[in-house]
Amino acid sequence: MTKPHILVLGGGEDQLPAYHEARRLGYGVIGVDQRPDALGASAADLFLCMTTRAPGEIAARIGHLDVAAVISPASDAAQESVAELSRILGTPYQPAPDAVRASVDKGYFHAVLERVGLPGYGHLRSADPVELRLAAATLSLPLIVKPNDSSGSKGVQVVADPAALPAALAEARAYSFSGEVMVEEMLLGRHLSAEAFLRDGKLATTAVTERATTGAPHMITTAHTVPAELTPATEIRLRSMIMDICVALGHTDGPVNFDFVVDRTEEIRFIEMGARLGGNGMPLLVQHAYGINTYEAALRLALGQDFDLAPRHVKKTALHILTTDTDGVLRTVDGEDAVRALPQTAELRLFAGPGSQVRRYTQAGHKLGYLLLVADSYAELRAAQAKAQSLLRFGVEPAAPAPARHPEPLTEKVR
């Protein structure tokens, strides 16, 4: 009898653990990614080198196989395909349509916040550059310009000078599947994330992280620290707001993540959401901080099986995204053994080795690896972070000067 398979849309660093977890649970793995050199290409039993945004074609290619579940961690772009393939293949878990839409349509998510009565801020979604420029003129600078339906920080820019707006709009539109762009106020305050998992209409677990970014112009995530230091009242209000959003979207079971800002008055304003496992190593962070395997939980949910979300411990944990500021060829990685030997190092994962082509960190997909550190106190954690950063060095041979680069083709990567 043919072994049942799990279909994983995406083959990047944040989908790869799902391949391994599926195999550990006794299933074959079908991977889909448009990049022939994706990490999942060598990890799958069957790998389809094609876009994840073509559910009908994918279904036709795998119609002879027994597919028990469909999943796509860390990819907003693939969530509509997850929903459609789950319907076509008749798998046990069917994503809530409104939750899928809120994950892939930032304008719709803003509308949901307004409907629920949660605090909002100035924004406009449109495919018309003139309409977007007129809207921008009514908002205070600086502004955030981003594709309405992309992820992984692709095409996101902070605009502080009106003269830079047309170019920012053009770049954001180039990364949008629909051609729609979002212009919104830039929120000031602490940037945080919540990685949650619902079960039977209730929050089964929530990990709230302090999020560090590159700052302007791209605001790309560089690190998460958990648990974030929130007042009890703010944390209670956050959980209540998350539930209000999930109820409005009909999302009763499964992972969901949010980016939000807490200002100096403790006001919470949500920026984006994804009804799937988070990217940038968030499941790894949750596993080290709380002992919860959300990859397994998400797979078991998709399979229609029971799953365990009971925390085993609570540890102060930091995840650093390893990057370079140079386009070129990675020649050396120095300090790897010394970093692994630090008592606070829980895990060091490198996605590139000597000889690899690497890109400067202008979008989330250009990361070189993850470093996870665990400590008994925030002070110890910060000291370990500084030590690791002083030890680990990436030697990159710069690429030869090239003509002006056009935006990369759209790919299904993390937010």
Topology:
Blueprint: E1 5-9, H1 16-24, E2 28-33, E3 46-49, H2 55-61, E4 67-71, H3 79-89, H4 97-104, H5 106-116, E5 123-126, H6 129-137, E6 143-147, E7 157-159, H7 165-174, E8 181-185, E9 190-199, E10 202-213, E11 221-226, H8 232-249, E12 254-262, E13 268-274, H9 282-290, H10 294-303, E14 316-322, E15 328-334, H11 336-340, E16 345-350, E17 357-358, E18 369-375, H12 378-391, E19 393-398
Parallel strand pairs: 1-2, 1-4, 2-3
Antiparallel strand pairs: 5-8, 6-7, 6-8, 9-10, 9-12, 10-11, 11-14, 12-13, 14-18, 15-17, 15-19, 16-18
Helix pairs in contact: 2-3, 4-5
GO molecular function: ATP binding; ligase activity; metal ion binding
Protein name: ATP-grasp domain-containing protein
Organism: Streptomyces griseoflavus Tu4000
Can you walk through the features of this model?
By secondary structure, this protein is an alpha+beta fold. It folds into three domains: 5-91, Rossmann fold, CATH 3.40.50; 122-185, Dna Ligase, domain 1, CATH 3.30.1490; 190-398, D-amino Acid Aminotransferase, Chain A, domain 1 (2-Layer Sandwich), CATH 3.30.470. It has twelve helices and 19 strands. The strands form four sheets. The chain has an eight-stranded antiparallel sheet with strand order 13-12-9-10-11-14-18-16, with helices on both faces. A four-stranded parallel sheet has the order 3-2-1-4. It is globular and about 60 Å long. The two termini are 39 Å apart. Mean pLDDT is 94; it is low at 411-415.
